[in-house]
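Lecture 7 notes. Example A: sequence first, then its structure tokens.
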Amino acid sequence: MNLCPILKYTASIFHDVIKIRNMESREFLELMECMQRIFPERANSNLFLELYEIFPEGFVVALDDGKIIGFAIGILSDEGKGRILLIGVDENYRCRGIGTRLLKKLLMNLRSSGAVEIELEVRVSNKRAIEFYQKNGFIKIRRVSGFYEDGEDGYVMVKKL
């Protein structure tokens, strides 16, 4: 049973409870624990620590009662270009608008840092993510054959800021 319609009904209640803000350095280990739950194959603490040291504004977290329950991570890749690396929300908190709020905060941070275009990659099989990004103004610009380690194709999606 898809609970998203039911959960969306109560999203306004949770909007005030869930806080969205830039991650603080002391929260790095908790971020990695959250990432391990959501994307165990992507939780490379050395890589993300390096990225945090280079561009801390690219690390946005969602907190419920002080506990990280979601995150968005992005970087500045080239002059005027940003890249979204990961957006994740704990399973029990999905369909409440948290991912959208994380994305908006990350886009705001990237724009403030000089980005005028944002790029990301998404698995062609991840229909929910593709729909989410399209709803937030991203468009598919190309399909990349065998983009992921398991051989699955990916879409490159872009949004102008």
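Example B, a different protein, same format:
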Amino acid sequence: MKTLKFLSLIILITLSSCSSVMVNADYDKKVSFSNYKSYAYLKSGVDKAEISDLDKKRILHSIDEVMLSKGFSKSEQPDVLISIFTKERERIDVHQNFGWGWGPGWGWGWGWNPYWGMGFNSVYTTPEGTLFIDIIDAKTKELVWQGEGSGYLTKNTAKKEARIKEFVSKILEQYPPVIK
């Protein structure tokens, strides 16, 4: 029984590590999300995001696509305000590659054949980012939902738009929350 639980845990970890964007969401359980039908952006929040204006436009365009596909409309008198926040950091991975060592082996006949090898380390840095999408009740000005997505970033401009769409769509898959 313990082995089965352990194998289930290993499979779960393996499957979750395959996802390229890790997401999490939190929300106010007292809020009725069915009342929200329209949105606008909180300009002061969007302006504070420390990314290029081009990336801000990409994020906002992706949010528009997802929100419209969910039946929300953009409005001058919105039910909710959307704000974004970003974090970026360098992820450092060190791989230790061990070469051959001392020990028995096959060679010029049978017996003890010593051989020496060399190990080496490889260090890789990869930009990793987190995108927060905040949904704020327009009347009360209180945060009602926050989605967070973390994953590797690309500096390749041809792939950047697709990567941003992936971040936004994975985060907003959890909005509005399904309350059971």
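Note on Example B: The first strand starts at residue 21 and ends at 27. The radius of gyration is 24 Å.
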